[in-house]
Amino acid sequence: MSFGTIYSYPHNPRVAKIHAVANLNGLKVEDAPFEFGKTNKTPDFLAKFPLGKAPAFSSADGVNLFESNAIAHYVADSGPLKDQLLGSNAAERAAIQQWVTAAETEVMPPVVTAFLPRFGLVPFDQGADDNAVSKIERAVESLERHISSGKTWLAGEKISLADISVAAALVWGFTFAIDAEMRAKYPGVVAWYGRVVGTQGVKEAFGETTFVEKRTVPK
Q1: Domain(s) of CATH 1.20.1050.10: residues in the chain
Q2: By three-state DSSP, how is residue 28 classified?
Q3: What is the DSSP letter of 160?
Q4: Which residues in the chain are classed under CATH 3.40.30.10?
Q5: Helical pair 126-147 and 187-198, crossing angle rounded to 10 deg
Q6: pLDDT tens, 121-172?
Q7: E strand or H helix at 188, and its extent?
Q8: Distance (Å, rounded) from C-alpha 212 to C-alpha 215?
Q9: Which residues form a coiled coil (predicted)?
Q10: Is 124 helix (H, G, I), strand (E, B) or coil?
Q11: May I ask the CATH architecture of the domain 4-83?
Q12: Taking the chain, what is the end-to-end CA distance rounded to the nearest angstrom?
């Protein structure tokens, strides 16, 4: 039985995050046909999701949500691994939430800035790209310091929504910006990322990550 349906464009790391927590919780979440700019402007879609944003989610019992972190939290909280994924006490929940927030505010914005021109979606701007890559490296360096203090996972003794959220935010980073030279400086982050995306359930949601060998300037 389907737990719910996601509406989004293909290959969206924010959706991979949701599918990963669904898989870990043993919940079936389906992807609806979706065309950005059309599906999300229909009266039916806007009645459920007033901002017209994707990803959006409808549960089988009528819960409608937008914003990927809200959706991921709901899915994580709806299965047997909710305490592992979200924390079993106030301190654990806060630690996980800080990384979920950091993924969205510190990691994803510069990653998207680096990704968009390399995917041909916006013109390339060298200054903006240099700034984005600098911010990406600052985030990765911070992760390295945290992980090198003896952490296997970002928050707690097992994989949680913290790890899945930060890894999802880094997918396009590893694909387009975090090249071999940068990865060599942060082996702890590379090993941690491998643990996250190699976890059963997460692996199926994320698929294979293509690691860029040398960051290039779009033509």
Answers
A1: 87-206
A2: strand
A3: -
A4: 4-83
A5: 80
A6: 899 999 999 999 999 999 999 999 999 999 999 999 999 999 999 999 999 9
A7: helix 187-198
A8: 6
A9: none
A10: coil
A11: 3-Layer(aba) Sandwich (3.40)
A12: 47
pLDDT at 217: 85
Q: Which residue has the tokens 């890559």?
A: 133
In this structure, the number of other CB atoms found within 10 A of the CB of residue 33 comes to: 6
pTM over cut 0.90? yes
- Rounded-to-integer distance, Cα 111 and Cα 132, Å: 7
Q: How far apart are CA 75 and CA 85, in angstroms?
A: 10
* Packing angle, helices 161-176 and 187-198, rounded to 10: 110
Among residues 5, 14, 112, the alpha carbon closest in space to that of 59 is found at 5
Pairing of strands 56-59, 28-31: unpaired
87-206 in CATH: which number?
A: 1.20.1050.10
147-155: which pairs have CB atoms within 8 A and are 24 or more residues apart?
147/188, 147/189, 147/191, 147/192, 148/188, 151/192, 152/192, 152/195, 153/192, 153/195, 154/95, 154/96, 154/99, 154/192, 155/87, 155/92, 155/95, 155/96, 155/98, 155/99
